[in-house]
From TrEMBL:
GO terms for biological process: response to host immune response. This is PPE domain-containing protein. InterPro entries: PPE_dom (IPR000030), PPE_sf (IPR038332). Residues 3-84 form the PPE domain. Belongs to the mycobacterial PPE family. Coiled coil: none annotated. The lineage of its organism: Bacteria, Bacillati, Actinomycetota, Actinomycetes, Mycobacteriales.
Length: 84
């Protein structure tokens, strides 16, 4: 039975990082960092492609419509990467 309120936070924290499950916690943290890096990379690439398409190769109302549809997704990727 776990009752984390009975122990000081520093004891609970030490147990999480040094206990039997600490390896999996560290692995999970490393995975989150990798996910954040991948999300940042994807957002940057999408933003770059959309910018190139709408300013150099594909101009006009249809490119603006595509950009308007894609930019919210790119913004979501960026925000999610910052939170990860």
């Amino acid at each position: 039975m776990f009752d984390f309120a009975l122990l000081p936070p520093e004891v609970n924290s030490a147990r999480m990082y040094t206990g039997a499950g600490s390896g999996s916690l560290r692995t999970a943290a490393a995975s989150w960092q990798l996910l954040a890096a991948e999300l940042h990379s994807a957002a940057s690439m999408y933003r770059s492609v959309v910018t190139d398409l709408t300013t150099m190769q594909w101009t006009g109302p249809s490119s603006m419509s595509m950009a308007a549809a894609v930019i919210p997704y790119v913004d979501w990727l960026t925000v999610t990467a910052e939170q990860a």
